[in-house]
Specification:
Elements: H1 9-19, H2 30-39, H3 48-63, H4 81-87, H5 95-114, H6 126-130, H7 134-143, H8 152-162, H9 169-190, H10 209-217, H11 223-234, H12 238-241, H13 245-258, H14 263-277, H15 281-292, H16 298-302, H17 306-311, H18 327-353, H19 361-387, H20 393-413, H21 415-424, H22 431-437, H23 448-452, H24 457-473, H25 477-488, H26 490-495, H27 500-519, H28 524-534, H29 542-555, H30 567-585
Helix pairs in contact: 1-3, 3-5, 5-7, 5-8, 7-8, 9-14, 10-11, 10-13, 11-14, 13-14, 13-15, 18-19, 18-20, 19-20, 19-21, 20-21, 22-24, 24-25, 24-27, 27-29, 28-30, 29-30
């Protein structure tokens, strides 16, 4: 039946039986009856159907509650995973049944979560739900809004609540960009009549699965054939392309890890992967992650599931290190990391909401923030390691941009994360890169005054150097105010100078302040006063030579400094020449 049916008396009656628990006295297998009704549903879906499913799920939760005589409700059982998986898949002809079974699955999981501890009913596992075409069916309903108007809003709410990682802005934008570029590329390819698989007014013939796997596995020795195969696959409708996902990922990723692969193959693979990700993201993510762990046994790889990844997203950074050296694989890996982090935040937050005895709400938020900051810190460590390896300059530039884009998106999604990462600090050699490439670094001005007041000299100097680089890029009134705070902390650094390492900290802070004076000439006079004030403490040995080198280099001094020069001598000479230089520039 459908919304155009003249009668749906049986549905209304069964809904009343479920709602008022009258099914206890009726020896009827409600599950079988409901499945039969769902199988006969056609578009447009009747508004009573989702209500019936809601009542059935509610009855299941009540029947599983403590104190209920299970012998009286033995005939009230949830649908088996076999029944759902056999009827809810992409290539089924009965799309209405698939949509309704997906709605039932999501509704049951939501209801079990809400009644946590009050019912013995078990929810469907995340691994099982990941095999269902969630995003495809949601998109299917969206395109046929009038036929599914009574169920689409309900299902969208359930999907967003349970799987928000499918809808993060960065992932949606990437998918949209990939689909647009893929269409442009496909239209360009269709103009080339020399492609053997393209014939005017004819559908593209689908290749055999074995053929796809064989050709793509041999992409290093025969790249031309692999490019043609990927073009052929790219031209297929997504509904047809989906069945090749396993073979494409299994064949191409190992070749990408080996390196020396045709750029055209990498681009086509990335385009196809992103298209599939917008179609069946959960299955593709799991399949990809398992392939990125090429250095462990098949048995260990199979232990990776959606639940384990969302519980510990940082495990993804333990994959084959070669994945970090390939721009295509790194981009894909970070998409998976982003999904896992968002899924993890949602999973733990729901556990707290369901009063699961794990952590208190504030402790949970701190834990999740620490987890996300650890991901950024690990990525920064990856970049430092990459800079020490012999990687092609073009590939290294792409890797750098991919990492910086991920960090930028992370900071935009959660500005507090930026504060935590910078309070933890990282190698100062990365500051020029991050300030130049991460567009959201300007938000650091909001917490730099607080970081400058830290009692740890190392963090204070880190903050001064960060202020220096940010002020060069953003010479604004706000950065001038922060620069004044940085200048005032020189006395703190000077007072805590007792070892050679502390001398190094003072030198770094001197250099930062000199650069700030170049950016903001109005600071020069105040800086001279501060330096004269702290110059009563001599710097001896290697420290004095380093001070001489830094200050002289900063102001391009040609004056010869005698060996007995004190810190005061160095500062006065340096800043006199600095003021002269600034005067000449103005």
């Amino acid at each position: 039946f459908s919304s155009s049916s003249s009668s749906c008396l049986s549905v209304v009656c069964m809904a009343e039986l479920l709602r008022h628990k009258l099914y206890i006295n009726v020896k009827l297998d409600v599950g079988d009856w409901l499945l039969q009704q769902l199988q006969h549903c056609v578009e447009p879906i009747h508004e009573s159907v989702p209500v019936l499913i809601d009542d059935f799920v509610q009855a299941l939760c009540i029947s599983g509650s403590a104190g209920v005589d299970q012998t009286t409700v033995a005939h009230l059982t949830p649908f088996s995973t076999t029944v759902i998986s056999e009827n809810c898949h992409i290539r089924t002809s009965n799309k209405s049944l698939s949509v309704l079974l997906l709605y039932y699955t999501l509704k049951l999981n939501s209801q079990v979560e809400l009644t946590q501890g009050k019912t013995n009913l078990k929810e469907y596992s995340e691994d099982f739900v990941s095999t269902l075409p969630v995003k495809y069916l949601l998109s299917y309903c969206e395109k046929r809004e009038m036929q599914y108007r009574c169920i689409y809003p309900r299902m969208l709410k359930l999907v967003v609540n349970q799987y928000p990682h499918l809808f993060t802005p960065s992932i949606l934008l990437s998918e949209e960009s990939s689909q647009f570029n893929g269409r442009i590329g496909l239209e360009s390819n269709l103009l080339h009549s020399d492609l053997p698989f393209i014939h005017p007014n004819k559908a593209i013939q689908e290749p055999e699965l074995e053929e796809v796997h064989t050709v793509l596995s041999d992409c290093q020795s025969n790249p031309a054939a692999a490019v043609l195969m990927l073009l052929r696959l790219q031209a297929l409708p997504l509904l047809s392309l989906e069945k090749y996902a396993h073979h494409i990922v299994e064949a191409v990723i190992p070749s990408l890890m080996k390196g020396s692969i045709d750029d055209r193959i990498s681009e086509l693979f990335m385009s196809i992967w992103m298209s599939l990700h917008g179609f069946t993201p959960l299955q593709l993510t799991l399949l990809t992650v398992r392939q990125l762990y090429a250095d462990i046994s098949l048995q260990s790889r199979s232990q990776f599931n959606l639940d384990s990844i969302t519980l510990d997203p940082l495990v993804l950074f333990n994959c084959d290190r070669r994945a970090f050296q390939c721009p295509t694989l790194l981009s894909i890996l970070l998409h998976c990391v982003q999904m896992a982090l968002t899924g993890s935040r949602n999973k733990y937050s729901r556990m707290v909401s369901a009063n699961v005895d794990v952590l208190k709400p504030d402790e949970m938020q701190n834990f999740l923030l620490a987890q996300e900051s650890a991901a950024v810190q690990l990525l920064l460590e990856v970049f430092v390691a990459l800079s020490r390896e012999s990687i092609d300059e073009s590939a290294f530039t792409k890797l750098r941009l991919i990492i910086c884009q991920f960090i930028h998106r992370s900071f935009v999604d959660n500005p507090i994360l930026s504060k935590l990462v910078h309070f933890q600090t990282y190698p100062t050699s990365l500051l020029p890169l991050l300030v130049a490439e991460v567009a959201s670094m300007h938000i650091c001005f909001d917490f730099l005054p607080e970081l400058l007041l830290n009692r740890d000299p190392n963090k204070v100097v880190f903050a001064m150097e960060l202020t220096d680089f940010l002020s060069r890029k953003y010479p604004l009134q706000k950065s001038l105010n922060v620069s004044k705070n940085a200048l005032s902390r020189l006395k703190f650094i000077s007072k805590h100078r007792t070892t050679t390492d502390d001398n190094e900290l003072l030198l770094r802070s001197l250099k930062a302040v000199v650069n700030l004076c170049v950016t903001f000439p109005s600071l020069a006079e105040e800086a001279v006063d501060v330096f004269i004030d702290i110059s009563g403490q001599d710097v001896s040995g290697s420290g004095k030579q380093a001070v001489r080198s830094v200050v002289a280099g900063a102001v391009n001094s040609s004056e010869r400094l005698h060996d007995g020069a004190t810190t005061k001598d160095l500062v006065v000479v340096a800043f006199r020449r600095l003021v002269d230089m600034l005067a000449q520039r103005t």
